[in-house]
Amino acid sequence: MLGPDQPVILHLLDIPPAAEALNGVKMELVDAAFPILKGVIATTDVVEACTGVNIAVMVGGFPRKKDGEKRCDVEKCVNLQVPGFSFREACSCKLQASFVVQVLVVANPANTNALILKEFAPSIPEKNITCLTRLDHNRALGQISERLNVQVSDVKNVIIWGNHSSTQYPDVNHATVKTSSGEKPVRELVKDDEWLNAEFITTVQQRGAAIIKARKLSSALSAASSACDHIRDWVLGTPEGTWVSMGCTLMAHTMCHLG
Ligand SMILES: NC(=O)C1=CN([C@@H]2O[C@H](COP(=O)(O)OP(=O)(O)OC[C@H]3O[C@@H](n4cnc5c(N)ncnc54)[C@H](O)[C@@H]3O)[C@@H](O)[C@H]2O)C=CC1
Ligand SMILES: O=C([O-])CC(=O)C(=O)O
Q: In this protein, which residues make up the domain named Lactate/malate dehydrogenase C-terminal (predicted)?
């Protein structure tokens, strides 16, 4: 997430009914013998979990089932206030003088949950609260790469506007592909505006539901990988001339250029 040379200490927070499973995750992390993993704190105590944290990835929530929408179910959303409150506590108690936290909200509805967190943790600067639309961004890159039969790493600069939900707008109008004769616009290479303006968009918008239908579980590997991409690019920056997508509560749009 922060490169191969950056040691990390993981603080894992879960709710008390999940404490045993959480300990199982800790055992697996130890058994994986990751060279840069310098410690694991597995806890159900929000203050212990938040103390000294620099980067917080909020995945605590309940994935939707087949046919569900990523809407805000009040009872479930309120759950996110638990970590929200804990961050407020951790910050206001000045548990650590140099407490700087960058937050990525993953749990759905991700944009709404980021907004809730902003309200309940006012001591976290607004610009430090983001939510995950990078998965949608990566999905758009993947669709273009499959369509053109090119390496996904040669496709760049799609944009995800709006929420991490079926109302988002995946935009390829500035996207390019690296070719042997230089960078070319995606539209020029695809040569099929009908596909780009319809099926491509709905495929990206509905991809989460398609994965739930196929796996009977919500996306896991791609979500985790895009969360790592999000944090890495946020902290370390994107390559010159490249941008990525993320949800920000500060701005009315989801596209950030991180130089
Ligand atoms: N924004 C995005 O692109 C994506 C978002 N998601 C969302 O991420 C969330 C997590 O998904 P999975 O990891 O598949 O679910 P999961 O059910 O495997 O794990 C969620 C964990 O969160 C814990 N939890 C629930 N409430 C909590 C709270 N208040 N504080 C701390 N921990 C809490 C649960 O006990 C469970 O261990 C879901 O809301 C899912 O919809 C998933 C994929 C992509
Ligand atoms: O669709 C879901 O519920 C999980 C998710 O956010 C995604 O895969 O995009």
A: 133-249
Distance in Å, CA 128 to ligand 1 centroid = 20
Complete edge-to-edge strand list for the sheet that includes strand 55-58: 55-58, 102-105, 129-131, 247-248
139 is in an annotated binding site: yes
Annotated binding-site residue? 111: no
- In a domain? residue 121: yes
Q: Three-state SS for 256?
A: strand
In a domain, 249, yes or no: yes
128 annotated as belonging to a binding site for a ligand: no
Residue 54 is part of a domain; what is its CATH number? 3.40.50.720
- Answer yes or no: do 83 and 151 share one domain: no
Q: How far apart are CA 185 and CA 180, in angstroms?
A: 13
pLDDT at 98 over 50: no
pLDDT at 75 over 90: no
Distance 55 CA to ligand 2 centre (A): 22
Least confident of 83-87, 94-98, 223-227: 94-98
Lowest mean pLDDT across 76-80, 144-148, 255-259 = 255-259
With the most atoms of ligand 2 within 8 angstroms of its CB, the residue from 62, 217, 218 to mutate is 218
The DSSP H or E segment spanning 247 is: strand 247-248
What is the structure's pLDDT at 123?
Answer: 79
Q: How far apart are CA 148 and CA 27, in angstroms?
A: 43
Domain of 194 in residue numbering reads as 134-256
| ipTM score above 0.90 | yes
Shared-domain flag, residues 76 and 145? no
Of ligand 2's listed atoms, the one at least distance from the Cα of 218 is 4
